[in-house]
Design goal:
- The chain is α/β, with parallel strands linked by helices.
- The protein has 11 helices and 9 strands.
- The chain starts with 7 loop residues before the first strand and ends with a strand.
Length: 296
């Protein structure tokens, strides 16, 4: 396997299954996947490679656009011979969606993910407060540097010491153009734009991504949505996040498409709309009981 020098961390598993390609969120790095990579290799025999995006890690300080990151990942996947499960966290989840809209994959997993332009994004109060102190420099074209307190408010408070201090020390400022793309330049990925099996993961304690946001994202693609009540925005480094790690491995080995959607989860005008859902699923499961007895 050929990979960019200093841009990846490969952990080789003993099995012959798909390879997991891991994409981090903005301001983070390939290091955020270290625990999960070890678990997947040791417990499931799965190989994985975590990439450092341009503008992060050893390339911190460089500016970059979302489309460039998607191009780089797409090119990297051409070097792999195994089936690929593409796993993205936060901004990395949006990059995973962009790549999956261009090619067929064994599976796609979006963890606490940003959505495409078609899915309405409403920032949370915590997210707005975290960014406000850094906005003046950001507007002038500087990287967006969030304070340690902002990261704690955004989910790092779930970490125990010394893991919390170690994670805070490895953060990088957000590349200016990349942050702008996330705020006002998210890409168009139309309904039906991804054909690969897809899993959306939501942590109920996430202060950045709401459950409603994750449900809208899953609805847009007809994806599975798995909710974990005891994790926040960074399950791959949170003590309670190992259940998510295990769930991702199970999906990666045998990706499945959504078989039964939530019973009347949305009003007719929400998400892709009743017309879009009826077109995708002309014989939806329905229930006359709040206890879930499903009838055609």
């Amino acid at each position: 396997m050929q990979t960019p020098v200093n841009a990846q961390h490969l952990v080789q598993g003993s099995g012959s299954g798909p390879i997991l390609v891991l994409l981090h969120g903005i301001g983070l790095g390939k290091w955020i996947w270290e625990r999960d990579q070890s678990h997947w290799a040791e417990s499931h025999g799965l190989s994985s490679v975590a990439l450092d995006f341009q503008g992060h890690g050893s390339q911190a300080g460089q500016d970059v656009r979302l489309e460039e990151l998607a191009d780089q990942v797409h090119t990297f996947l051409d070097t792999l011979e195994q089936p690929v499960v593409l796993i993205g966290h936060s901004m990395g989840g949006l990059v995973a969606q962009m790549v999956a809209s261009r090619r067929e994959l064994h599976g796609v997993v979006c963890v606490a993910s940003a959505p495409p332009k078609e899915v309405f994004l409403r920032p949370t109060k915590v997210g707005i407060r975290a960014m406000l102190p850094a906005l003046a420099g950001f507007v002038r074209g500087k990287p967006l540097s969030l304070s340690n307190k902002a990261y704690l408010d955004c989910g790092f408070d779930q970490l125990d010491e010394p893991a919390r201090s170690q994670a805070l020390a490895r953060l990088t400022p957000w590349p200016n153009a990349l942050a702008k793309d996330l705020v006002i330049g998210r890409p168009d990925i139309p309904l039906g734009g991804i054909s690969s099996p897809m899993l959306v993961i939501h942590g109920f304690k996430d202060p950045i991504v709401t459950l409603h946001q994750s449900r809208l994202l899953a609805d847009h693609y007809g994806a599975l949505l798995w909710r974990f009540d005891d994790v926040a925005h960074h399950p791959m480094i949170e003590p309670s996040g190992l259940r998510v790690t295990q769930a991702i491995a199970e999906f990666a080995v045998k990706p499945t498409r959504r078989l039964v959607r939530e019973i009347d989860a949305f009003s007719p005008d929400q998400g892709i709309g009743k017309g879009g859902r009826d077109a995708r699923d002309p014989n939806p499961m329905r229930s006359d009981s709040k206890f879930g007895d499903r009838r055609r």
